[in-house]
DNA sequence: TTGAAAGCGCTAACAG
DNA sequence: CTGTTAGCGCTTTCAA
């Protein structure tokens, strides 16, 4: 037994921070009254409230959410699984999420899957341990075990949402709310735009990230539309390093292959397209005269180049905000969150349509 | 008393998920044995382990971290406060953080402050409620209340780290470990590079984000070095919209002001500098002949332009990884985390040095 | 308006 | 190797 029987920190376990009990002592009430004051200040007598308020200030009390959540069973946590937090497209979605959650009294628990379904599964397990009130996952592809966890969570009252993917066909329903758009349909839109300009020999340049199935699906839609209209499509895949460089490399490949007299190319994202555009400029290839270029994502740089890049504008931050709204509503009402289609807009600029 | 005495879900409160107790029943042992199996599988007899493993599978048990942390007092949470999650510079830091934390059994609780110290304070309060084992905040400027919370947390054994700022002078020590670099010194380096090229009339274009004091400090260092070497410095501030556009606008302002015969300009970030560079191209201003341009951040686009942009390369993801390592080490040993200078590298390209 | 009793799900300490 | 006892800090009835 230590001689240091300092009354302020005589706890045996715990983390030594002030608890409700110490605030209550300092205010001359019991713990429950302090607890009430924190949650429903109106239900406490003004004088008591003042004393408690002072005691909180004086002790520097910070409520312990773990204990609170454990006791109440209500969860304040919103957990999100994102492929890559550093990628500008998802970064803005997360920013939208954090903004949408701000001042809602909810906290965001975030993990990056690195586009790996296996990581997603293990991280989902870790996340579920926090008994989140809501779960936001990217896309609709999951391992069987992850799917089961998501279903169990939803059955247990957790709001589950899949973002960045919302196919139009009923066949792909999996019982979870979705916020996003149909990537195949977007691929079709991209093809349609180019076909309407009269192109008959096109290319789709896919992302080098093998697990980015959404980019692949845009390619499928693109190819389907081309074929439906009797045009030729070539499928390429970009490299994985710097996206601008990868785009430049793709353009070289496209140009050096005499068997591919492509007059228009669509890309999995704007960075690839911008790289190709800059390389075309270096090579003196006229855009869109000799080659039309179409991107996806509407990254700021695309607007700055000459010619400016035609692209699809997805609601990057909007998806995050919509997801925040949806889970907040679901957590408030107890209902399941509702799906929402967030449309993607075609931004026509000079890289596909001559001035 | 309800008639529905379904043995599987007869709990009164709680969230209805299976608990240790149900796993234990299914495995024919007591809760503590299951708990042990989960934390230290080696300390359980192989046969028992197998039965427990099966019971976990069968029940779909997920450990409740809130309860675990509450009981053990040990925290698995790493909380981080970042100005803007969507900004590419911080997005990569977060990505570095999540990667550094992966498979460590820690979870990242993330909040964005929007560059506001008031937000930081209130979010810090919310974060502290989770009794995080580590706290990562951006920069060394905090409100007095936030500072007190950080100190209290550190005194209570929480690992606290400030990232993206690590001044060299002792005067600015505040007792927290820091991972980053000295922004004033970087500003000096930037100026030195331009001064060494013979420039005598320079400009520093500051960020339009008023609260980004780190960009301001780079400007201070820049100005100090210029003045020390008897050169003239003009201070400008960029607009707040699209950074490329803001950079373009700055270049127009610079060019149209006859009283400012500036021959070199440094920018708070690469996007501003790239905007200015592209605008110079549009206007036929020769870079670096008539005007040398210097950025900060080493964003990928800077390498692609012609001339390529000279810039400072900060360890964007590296800071996140280093922070992860530092807090993991501190949480493991119980010591305070250690500071680390992450150097920033000058990348000389053609926008300041003619080929 | 305030308090007492009970318990959320888990783990530390000590036995056996 | 396994179990018992006690309790983490808070909130929910229900009662005063």
TrEMBL record, chains A, B:
Keywords (A to Z) from UniProt: DNA-binding, Transcription, Transcription regulation
An example molecular function term from Gene Ontology annotations: DNA binding
Region listing for Disordered, in residue ranges: 1-20
PROSITE patterns given in the database record: HTH_LACI_1, HTH_LACI_2
UniProt cross-references to InterPro entries, sorted A to Z: HTH_LacI, LacI/GalR-like_sensor, Lambda_DNA-bd_dom_sf, Peripla_BP_I
Superkingdom per UniProt: Bacteria
HTH lacI-type domain residues: 18-72
Signal peptide (from-to): none
Cited Pfam families: LacI (PF00356), Peripla_BP_3 (PF13377)
Identification of the protein by name: LacI family DNA-binding transcriptional regulator
